[in-house]
Design brief:
Blueprint (H helix, E strand, L loop, with lengths): L1 H31 L15 H110 L1
Helix pairs in contact: 1-2
Length: 158
């Protein structure tokens, strides 16, 4: 769209250049005499129709210059807005990069906590087995001690 406006401005600028040449040529012609114009009057004094033509061309020239200025201002505003959008996208890219780092940190923390949880589970299973074997060993020792005590009582009683 911006290229279309620029090419339209170039075309309009060329057209304005041609209009300026025509106006300039018409003014020179009027000073020399009306021979180059449509003749509705005679003599060396420029007639009213020629001055109207020149006035109309000058008005068209002023209007076209105003249009060019307005388009130029519009293009400058669009360029400024594009620059602002570019800055917004740069800021957004920085935020996305920073959030990517945070997400990577979260992911590594999740993996770390998973491996630590697996190790803790293994240690709990091992502790449970050790506790069961210690309980059965304690029971066995109590039974052996009870049998030995019973034997000592029987031997002393006899």
């Amino acid at each position: 769209m911006l290229r279309k406006q620029c090419s339209a401005n170039v075309c309009l600028t060329k057209y304005l250049g041609q209009v300026r040449k025509i106006v300039s040529y018409s003014r020179r012609k009027m000073l020399r005499g009306p021979s180059g114009f449509k003749q509705s009057c005679s003599g060396t004094i420029p007639c009213h129709c020629h001055s109207q033509e020149i006035f109309q061309l000058e008005n068209e020239l002023v209007f076209n210059e105003a249009v060019i200025e307005e388009r130029d201002q519009g293009i400058k505003e669009i360029q400024q807005q594009i620059g602002e959008v570019n800055d917004i996208f740069k800021d957004l890219a920085v935020m996305v990069h920073d959030q990517g780092i945070v997400i990577d940190d979260i992911d590594s923390n999740i993996e770390s906590s998973h491996s630590v949880t697996v190790q803790a589970n293994r240690q709990l299973v091992k502790a449970s087995k050790t506790q069961r074997s210690n309980n059965s060993l304690s029971c066995l020792l109590i039974v052996i001690f009870a049998v030995a005590l019973l034997i000592v009582i029987i031997v002393l009683a006899a």
